[in-house]
Specification:
D-amino Acid Aminotransferase, Chain A, domain 1, 3 domains, 30% helix, ATP-grasp, PRibGlycinamide_synth_C_sf, metal ion binding, phosphoribosylamine-glycine ligase activity
Length: 432
């Protein structure tokens, strides 16, 4: 097949790497891609939200499957655009409908869906600037800390955990009145804080059938010890030792099955990946949030652990044949460390030369996934984003995987490079 992959991050480089390793892929195009994808596929200068240009490219290049990496095109309705066009409707596109994408695009919609389908989650209420006084009263009734979530997309940064009632009120005013997250915080979900251990579970579904992919734990904060500002993600580990067979059985019975059946019952078309952010509280799963695509950087830890053919998985999802796909997993552990530009997630510099890449990953103990990178005028690799790349170490256990990740991280350098040195350390402590 000729395949088009939309996106430009580390998740998309991992997708591209997995897709081109399948004999079912003739040619892979990535739009717009990054310096890493340009080494293994053909980058195409297309905007991921320019649906007419994407559809023209698909028809002109005999594309037989489209894979959507990030959430923005899904929330804006790319799947509906394809399905409503007679020339495109028969081409499998991996991602949910616009209505299905509201599970991520609107925290309020997502919470209501969970309540309707009896999916365990934190108690919450939603407010707008018109109901600010009611929101203040609601905050006063909550125990501390209080969680505030922007209703719309905020690039993974729209969640605030407030340590006092006054901080929660001040932050809520900034979100609703001062547009802290723009249109995304015109509605805010205030919810109970869940105290437990966080993890992410990934599900592939064709709208009726599903397969549970390897789980992962990610690290959101910029600083070590989970301190400082939220980021798009600073690292990930898979598998997760505290997600044992009993816990995963509860996840499947209480969360995955009611979610897939709820979507089907409500006639919400959903073909694609479902990322379920969970809290393990005393061995019971509670849903923090849904995302309607794979996570980043969790994808860089999860995909290497899928042994069976990945293009077969994508095609089975896109053609409603997922019940016929047998997923096989690797037994090794993966640990991903994200390398970022200094200053991220606030102001950071671009165009710094990346040195030492040729030495990273060459002994097969780690994989190098580009994110915010580009090729310079002399063919050199340059930084081009906040999260620049992710190094995924592979090992028979978490200790070896971390050792391999950090050994390869040490090969790479650019001015003001930063990474967390404590990825996976909490899991090592749990194991002891």
């Amino acid at each position: 097949m000729n395949i088009l992959l939309l996106g430009s991050g580390g998740r998309e480089h991992a997708f591209a790497w997995k897709i081109i390793n399948s004999q079912k892929c003739s040619q892979l195009f990535v739009a717009p891609g990054n310096a890493g994808t340009s080494q293994i596929a053909k980058n195409v200068s297309l905007s991921i939200t320019d649906f007419p240009a994407i559809s023209d490219f698909v028809l002109e290049n005999n594309i037989q499957m489209v894979v959507v990496g990030p959430e923005e095109p899904l929330v804006k309705g790319i799947v509906d655009f394809f399905k409503s066009n007679p020339n495109l409707s028969s081409i499998p596109i991996i991602g949910p409908s616009e209505e299905g994408a509201r599970l991520e695009g609107s925290k309020d919609f997502s919470k209501q869906f969970m309540e309707r389908n009896n999916i365990p989650t934190a108690a919450s209420a939603t407010f707008t600037k018109e109901t600010l006084k009611d929101a203040y009263q609601f905050i006063d009734q909550q125990s501390i800390p209080v969680v505030l979530k922007a209703d719309g997309l905020a690039a993974g940064k729209g969640v605030l955990i407030c340590q006092s009632h006054q901080e929660a009120k001040d932050s809520l005013k900034q979100m609703l009145i001062d547009n802290m997250f723009g249109e995304a915080s015109s509605k805010v979900v205030i919810e109970q804080f869940l105290d437990g251990i966080e993890l992410s579970v990934f599900v592939a579904t064709d709208g009726k059938n599903y397969k549970i992919l390897p789980e992962a734990k990610d690290y959101k904060r910029i600083g070590e010890g989970d301190s400082g500002l939220n980021t798009g993600g600073m690292g990930a580990v898979s598998p997760v030792p505290f997600a044992d067979a009993d816990f995963m059985r509860k996840v499947e019975e209480r969360v995955v099955i009611p979610t897939v059946k709820g979507l089907e019952k409500e006639n919400i078309k959903y073909t694609g990946f479902l990322f379920i952010g969970l809290m393990n509280i005393g061995g019971d799963p509670y849903v923090i949030e849904y995302n309607v695509r794979m996570g980043d950087p969790e994808t860089q830890a999860v995909l290497p652990r899928i042994k069976s053919d990945f293009v077969d998985l994508l095609h089975a999802m896109g053609t409603m044949q997922l019940d016929q796909y047998k997923i096989e997993l690797e037994t090794f552990t993966t640990t991903t460390v994200v390398l970022v530009a200094g200053g991220y997630p606030e102001a950071y510099r671009k165009d710094d030369k990346i040195i030492g890449l040729e030495n990273a990953g060459k002994d097969n103990t780690a994989l190098v996934f580009h994110a915010g990178t580009k090729i310079g005028s002399e063919g050199e690799f340059l930084t081009n984003g906040g999260r620049v790349m992710a190094i995924t170490g592979i090992g028979s256990n978490i200790e070896f995987a971390l050792q391999n990740a950090y050994k390869n991280v040490a090969e790479i350098c650019w001015d003001d490079l930063y990474f967390r040195k404590d990825i996976g350390q909490d899991i090592l402590k749990l194991k002891k």
